[in-house]
TrEMBL record:
Alphabetical keyword list: Exonuclease, Hydrolase, Nuclease, RNA-binding
Occurrences of domain RRM (ranges): 471-545, 566-644
A GO molecular-function descriptor: RNA binding
Name of the protein: REXO5 exonuclease
UniProt cross-references to Pfam families, sorted A to Z: RRM_1
């Protein structure tokens, strides 16, 4: 019996923004598996990838997550089928990001709307004799002793040397210089903090030639810490509080662990040995091994990616992992020794680094040009080749990817491509051709008349305005001299408050409260309407505006959203409680899978609420009953079903804080009829959702389907994209 594929992605919370590179990582692995250096994505997992029937990517051209929020009710199929969603970082050059960075485009021989790349995986230099690596080591492969630093090189690069005035009190490893080409290699890396003494070690990692971790130890500095350098070291004050190990302990352990002919490998290893206050005679420094001209050095992160195909020092992680860095440096040295200088020089690292920098510049640069429905206009200044496009790799395996869209395409490139003039025609071709292709990209569009920047601005204002209204409640009436503090405290138990103002235009005072999360506003309406607060029986309601007439319908649909299944919201949590405290308090709840504690994206402090995700829907229902009225550390908790998934929560926060704006204080809204253009747009969106539904139903079981709202990144402004994904199961649903 064929195994069922399924998808796992931990995307609950405000950190679920996925970069274009991470998206490429997912598509490459889904299409190729472990062939062609494809690895499991870092942010999600595909189980039984080899059993995938195919990959279908639906691109909604020139649309952003803004469209999804504005037409949430119209996207009925999308929100009911795809349980995995993520915010997608906008790109100025989305097609290049989708196919893979570093595609080598040549306008005169590239089919319109397509990206073609060289099938060469390594670019050779026309004259290797000029390469600094060849100039330093020659062309022939040599043993490891040829790459260890000489005594003069160690002195020049500030390595601790026996008898040097600056190394008094340093401990020798007592290893001799009788190394041979079969001497054992050990990778070493340290993390340091800044103390009153200077750089002191806080963590040490040592790995053997097989990459096994022999030592990974936290170290207590001798002097007072001035800066933990947490961003780079990952070390915090709290981590070091229970630590008893001192530098002398580490020195003793290293002396015992290293054999007499050990060769230490590291990246800028001199800094590590200086911080360890140790002297070792045999070293290979990968920052010098991969030689560059004019004394420049490649970063370890770049070398790991360019040479080994490994991602290290990822931005998602807090600080560097010394074991990971030690292993990367060791593997780089092993690669250099095994392959030899010529093979390393042929990688053309300088060109790869230039391509990487150009790609970064192009991502941060707004594209000043009008964009039609096709891809070609976006490809005027492509980045040079940095690595092969995975579509080329697919073609090598005999699989010809399919691309369908409105742009004129021919089939001479790496894709089968077809010209269609309408979404209906694209759908018809997709229903015929997608079953015949292992990898398909289908591009739909609302049409050029809906892509103008002023329409995006209008949509943004309407969505922002409606979300602000949904986050806002009015409560009252109160007595003239009511206690504001007690009122704010009572409403604060529903969740974090963005703003609190007193309305004095009425006969008796009311309060206007804007919350930071939708669940808090809904809890206030449900729990406090008709309650007695500050000595008054009050009414709690949202603003009455034209846009809010369907608020209850929208709240209901958000609650039933497939992404909110098994997720509940809990408010009234004391800010003094840590995530560990909450994990312990909620540990008695059955089937609890994830706890997400929202943080202020500016201050980093957590809010007085959290989200709990359960493995089973019934467990979430049981937890709701148990938690309501539950007292935790003297604070009574309130809870309800979740309404806003992580990506929407993040968008609300950024909307309310962008450019210092708090979201307009809404007392009224002009009662305007929907314009003809917006009515027409709603119909088009509804039809588009129906097209995707029809396409999805036609897919084979075990097909990965990814729907992308690419976002907008232009001189007129930037709007994040949105991704929805799932693997279709036997019953036509998106499997977890």
């Amino acid at each position: 019996q064929a195994k069922s594929c399924h998808l796992s992605a931990a995307l609950l919370g405000e950190d679920s923004e996925i970069s274009q590179e991470q998206l490429y990582e997912l598509l490459k692995y889904a299409a190729l598996g472990r062939c062609h250096n494809a690895a499991q994505p870092s942010w999600c997992r595909i189980y039984h990838q080899s059993h995938l029937a195919g990959v279908v990517v639906v691109v909604l051209h020139e649309m952003s997550q803004l469209h999804f929020y504005r037409f949430y009710l119209q996207f009925k199929h999308l929100r009911k089928v795809f349980r995995h969603r993520f915010t997608l970082a906008p790109s100025a050059n989305f097609p290049v990001s989708l196919y893979g960075e570093g595609t080598n485009l040549s306008p005169q021989n590239t089919p319109p709307g397509l990206i073609s790349t060289s099938s060469e995986c390594i670019t050779k230099s026309s004259d290797l004799q000029c390469d600094p690596i060849i100039q330093r080591y020659g062309e022939k492969k040599q043993g490891l002793t040829s790459y260890t630093l000489t005594l003069e090189e160690q002195k020049k690069n500030d390595y601790p040397i026996e008898g040097s005035p600056g190394c008094r009190g340093y401990i020798s490893t007592e290893c001799d210089q009788q190394r041979t080409d079969s001497s054992p290699l050990f990778g070493l890396d340290c993390e340091m903090c800044l103390t009153a003494k200077g750089n002191e070690v806080t963590r040490v990692s040592l790995v053997d030639a097989q990459g096994r971790c022999l030592l990974n130890e936290l170290v207590k500095p001798e002097s007072r810490v001035m800066n933990y350098r947490t961003r780079f070291s990952g070390i915090t004050k709290k981590m070091l509080l229970p630590v008893k190990t001192r530098l002398s302990d580490i020195q003793t352990r290293l002396k015992k662990m290293l054999p007499h002919d050990a060769v230490l490998v590291g990246h800028s290893l001199n800094s590590d040995l200086q911080a360890l206050e140790m002297i070792h005679p045999s070293v290979i420094d990968t920052s010098l091994l991969f030689a560059r001209s004019e004394g420049r050095r490649f970063k370890l992160k770049f070398l790991a990616k360019a040479v080994l195909g490994k991602e290290i020092q990822c931005e998602q992680k807090l600080g560097h992992d010394p074991t990971e860095d030690a292993r990367a440096a060791l593997e780089l040295a092993q690669f250099f020794i095994e392959q030899g200088p010529t093979k390393v020089a042929e990688l053309n690292l300088e060109m790869l680094l230039t391509a990487e920098k150009l790609a970064e510049v192009s991502q941060n640069k707004a594209v000043l040009q009008s964009q039609g429905c096709g891809f070609q206009e976006q490809l005027n200044e492509p980045p040079p080749l940095s690595k092969p496009c995975f579509l080329d790799c697919l073609q090598v395996t005999g699989q010809k990817p399919l691309l369908l869209g409105r742009q004129g395409l021919d089939s001479s490139g790496p894709c089968q491509s077809n010209l269609s003039t309408s979404n209906k025609q694209i759908l018809q071709r997709a229903l015929e051709d997608v079953p015949l292709s292992r990898f398909s990209i289908i591009q739909f569009s609302l049409g050029p008349e809906y892509l103008a920047s002023h329409l995006h601005a209008g949509l943004y204002e309407k969505v922002r305005s409606k979300l602000t209204d949904m986050l806002t409640i009015y409560a009252g009436p109160f007595e003239e001299n009511f206690c504001m503090k007690s009122v704010k405290k009572e409403f604060g138990r529903c969740g974090p408050i963005q703003s609190f103002t007193v309305v004095t235009e009425t006969f008796q005072p009311y309060v206007c409260i804007q919350y930071e999360v939708l669940e808090a506003a809904q809890l206030a309406v449900e729990n406090l309407n008709g309650a007695e607060v500050a000595g008054s029986c009050i009414k709690v309601q949202r603003p009455v505006t034209a846009a809010m007439l369907d608020c209850n319908v929208l709240i209901k649909e958000l609650e039933l959203d497939v992404e909110n299944e098994g997720v509940i919201y809990v408010a009234g949590i004391k800010k003094s409680l840590t995530e560990t405290d909450l994990q312990e308090e909620f540990s008695q709840l059955k089937d609890l899978e994830t706890l997400f504690l929202p943080k202020d994206l500016q201050s980093g402090k957590h809010r007085n609420c959290c989200f709990l995700k359960f493995q089973k829907t019934q467990s979430a229902v049981d937890a709701l009953e148990a938690i309501n009225g539950w007292t935790m550390k003297g604070s009574e908790l309130r809870s309800r079903n979740a309404l806003a998934p992580g990506h929407l929560w993040r968008w609300i926060w950024q909307t309310n804080h962008s450019n210092g704006k708090q979201g307009k204080h809404i007392f009224y809204e002009k009662m305007e009829q929907l314009s003809d253009s917006e009515q027409d747009l709603r119909k088009k969106v509804k039809k588009l959702d129906h097209h995707i539904k029809k396409l999805y139903r036609s897919l084979q079981s075990n097909t990965l389907c990814v729907v992308l709202f690419p976002g907008v990144n232009s001189t007129h402004g930037s709007q994040s994209g949105l991704g929805l994904m799932g693997i279709k199961d036997d019953e036509g649903r998106s499997a977890c």
